Amino acid sequence: MAACRRVPRLLLLMSIFLYVHPIREDKYQINGVAKPPVSVVIPAQNPGGAPAAVNGAPVLAALPLRRRTSGWKLAEEGACREDLTRLCPKHSWNNNLAVLECLQDRKEETEIAADCNHLLWNYKLNLTTDPKFESVAVEVCKTTITDDVHSQGEVIACLEKGLVREAEEQPGAHAIGANCKKAIMRVAELSSDDFHLDRYLYFSCREDRERFCENTPAGEGRVYKCLFNHKFEEAMSEKCRDALTTRQKLIAQDYKVSYSLAKACKTDLRKYRCSADTNMPRAREARLSYLLLCLESAVHRGRTVSGECQGEMLDYRRMLMEDFSLSPEIVLHCRGEIEAHCSGLHRKGRTLHCLMRVGRGDLGAIDNLCQKALQTLIQEADPGADYRIDRALNEACESVIQTACKHIRNGDPMILSCLMEHLYTDKMVEDCEHRLLELQYFIARDWKLDPILYKKCQGDASRLCHTHGWNETSEMMPPGAIFSCLYRHAYRTEEQGRRLSRDCKVEVQRILHQRALDVKLDPELQRRCMTDLGKWCSEKAESGQELDCLQDHLEDLVSECKDVVGNLTELESEDIQIETLLMRACEPVIQSYCHEVADNQIDTGDLMECLVQNKHQKEMNDKCAVGVTHFQLVQIKDFRFSYKFKMACKEDVLKLCPNIKKKVDVVLCLSTTVRNDTLQDMKEQRVSVKCRKQLRVEELEMSEDIRLEPELYDSCKQDIGRLCQNVAFGNAQVTSLVRQKRLVIECLKENKKQLTQRCHHKVFKLQEVEMMDSELDYQLMRVCKPMIRRFCTEADAKNMLQCLKQNKNSELMDPKCKQMITKRQITQNTDYRLNPVLRKSCKADIPKFCQSILNKATGDSELEGQVVSCLKLKYADQRLSPDCEDQIRVILQESALDYRLDPQLQLHCTDEISRLCPEEAAAQEQTGQVEECLKVNLLKIKVEGCKKEVLNILKESKADIFVDPVLHTACALDIKHHCAAIPPGRGRQMSCLMEALQDKRVRLQPECKKRLQDRIDMWSYAAKVAPAEGFSDLAMQVMTSPSKNYILAMIGLGVCVLFLFGLLCGRITKRVMQEQKNR
């Protein structure tokens, strides 16, 4: 250190000296001692115009300078006079340094005489080697140099290192005055075109130059660039590497220290006014970072920057990424992080990537100033524009690029996007994955660092988000704020106001797809959810699954994290392709069933809807099924998470279901409104058409998995474990996974009587909804899908069960579907509320005739078919309205064929059927044989409740022969021959057959005659066992009696006799005078 302090001032001080004192040709006063004049060294000329070298040393020739009493001036030399007169203003001729600067700058634009060029080169060489200037260095930089100094370039080298130490605020660094700094930088600049002029670097790197740059000609900074490119080679000597690093650090402080960069970019700097800010200190605008940011801004704005300049910029951007020490802010502010985590990784950008990894939070906390310095460096180097700038990334990902991204031009910005698309795939290697995520973490925090995004969205960002220029930043703007603004506008509707341009929107979606791969790529999400990520997802979530974890714990998150997760979930509902991992898992299903939707999807949520509809397909693998179900489970937490539902029903929700947030509650609220409006025959539905359409989709989705109905699932968890444990979540094949989950609901329905009260109530409510809309009955629609295609293609989906019931007895009906239809019929007959057609048709009859039953019932209990039985009896009495009568007739006909469709009969006669009719009950096909058996064995029935039900059946059969399938089958030909003109219903055809039975002229079929006689005996017994309970029953018995005409004639005769008696016998009461009445 002491030696350095003795040596380092020559070059700097010479410049200062030239500013202050012109060089005298007769003598130099140094410390009061007169010295001989300086001899100018003229090197031999090589073909490139630069001095030739022999064995690394310049060929020197002594050329004495002319003496003038007024002092030696460059302007007086004949070799340069013509060029000086032509190129430099006259007022600068008295200052040798001003002349040197003028000619140095202008020789890039115009040709300068060879002799003048040689003179200038020798003059600069003298400045860097002559020890007589040490006294000037001591004088000007006396606060820095405290010891004796000696030369051969070490003075300048030491001054340069002192300047670097001060910039990095290293311990023991000396403060250097402004004039001294300017002189140091100016001397470094003067030596920038030929490395021979930097004597310290020249002697330090002579062997390395021969090793690495033997064929590189001197001049125009070419040797410097060659050595820079080999700086981290193993064969590079440490002394040369240190000298090169010092030189690079000076370039970082003043770009003019790089001759090639200053020359290549001079025109562009002037063109884009990169040095025109008079309010900015000269030291700042001369920094390499300022030049890079200014010119990169022009490039990103689509301006033209020369290819030569861009090439130089690329080299120095790569240089910044390779060696973190060239950025004094990182050296200063990241010292602790480097010592703790990144020591020993200096070369090839490894230290920088290590710091970036610390910045991601993978290796511990990072200081805010260090984080900011890293972000600034990434902006300066701009590796997003060309991945090759990041050497560590380039080397780690070379194999991936060659295989997965070979179709993209080398150096194209889309290479990074291609790498992101293959993250977490088989083609990605671990080292590349780490380097890529480390870089993308910082790119994600400044939208400008993605050049494609910036190019497509700069106009939208300026218009909608009030952004600054590319190289301008706002301390008030949090990381990621501009991109958040862009994606909020990207998913706006036309009604909501200004939207992004199409090209910008595509890029925003691309970035969202990438960010879904890693939660740390979303600055806002990471910042607001850091605590919750550590609490809920630190050990449970795999890479790329953090957002899914946060969505699963949405109710448990802190408010600010909950808001940002909710916003992202809303975006996913609109464009599920943001979920890149899910899209990869579902690729087979998408290609087979949803490719058109995926290709054409524009913010409508159709793709997820398609995946849900095809969850049962064989192409659906486990990962895709789990991912789709997860998203469905997340959607039920808030109706806003279903984009199509939200857009279709937001006005209806505000009007009809205010203050309801959970999707399942909103769906229930709206569907209840629709159902009530339908039952009440409202002229105008309160729920809009578009909402009703989307409501159906949501109801269908919720019906396919019990977990999508959280209240039902939570209410029945205990019952599922007790009754359906072998069905709920068994080890079935993946293709039937969804079906098994749905079978849980079917299991609960079949064991409804054994359910807890809470679960029973929920299952009943579910059945009520499904009966209202058959399409929501997932199991029915699945089992009967082929039959629906065969019989019900034109039927309304809501009335699918009704259509299937009408075709139930067709020979073409599939047995499994027929069995499922029977199950649903049994369910409907247990409670009139489960039969919407009956409920609508009998809405006036039910409260009129069955109010006592309704009064006894509670809202949570089923009526076990009591209301239906009540209506059956009134049907027998012929007191129902026509619509209700038609529906009851259908129920009677169906239940007459299958006793299981009569809940009251099954409830009261189960034991009797097992005792008296076991063979009939065991028959696979029910054709009314069980009811016939009970009728025949009526006298043997011991259970009074069962006997009453059989008597009711007999009573009902008198009202319509269709209610008695055995009798109807036996008498079908006789009805056709003798009663064809008589309409069915109200016992008319039965009366016709009875009259035919009594008419000896009519010959009935033996089987029909026998069955009719049996019915007469049964009715007679029924009349004895169950006499009429009132006048209505008595009238009904008369009207359905075979002797109806005789009975009615006798009643009429009695009335006539009573009337005649009154006419003949006069009044029985005493006559009263009129006057007495009017008193």
Automatic annotation (TrEMBL):
Residue ranges of the TM segments: 1046-1069
Cellular component GO terms, alphabetical: Golgi membrane
Keyword Signal included in the entry's annotation: yes
InterPro entries: Cys-rich_GLG1_repeat, Cys-rich_GLG1_repeat_euk, GLG1
Location within or outside the cell: Golgi outpost; Membrane
Signal peptide stretch: 1-22
Keyword vocabulary terms for this entry: Glycoprotein, Membrane, Repeat, Sialic acid, Signal, Transmembrane, Transmembrane helix
GO MF term list: fibroblast growth factor binding
Keyword Membrane part of the UniProt annotation: yes
Intervals holding Cys-rich GLG repeats: 175-235, 304-363, 427-494, 499-558, 619-678, 754-812, 879-942
Membrane topology (UniProt): Single-pass type I membrane protein
Protein name: Golgi apparatus protein 1
Protein's organism: Oncorhynchus mykiss (Rainbow trout)
Lineage: Eukaryota, Metazoa, Chordata, Craniata, Vertebrata
Gene that this polypeptide is encoded by: LOC110493154
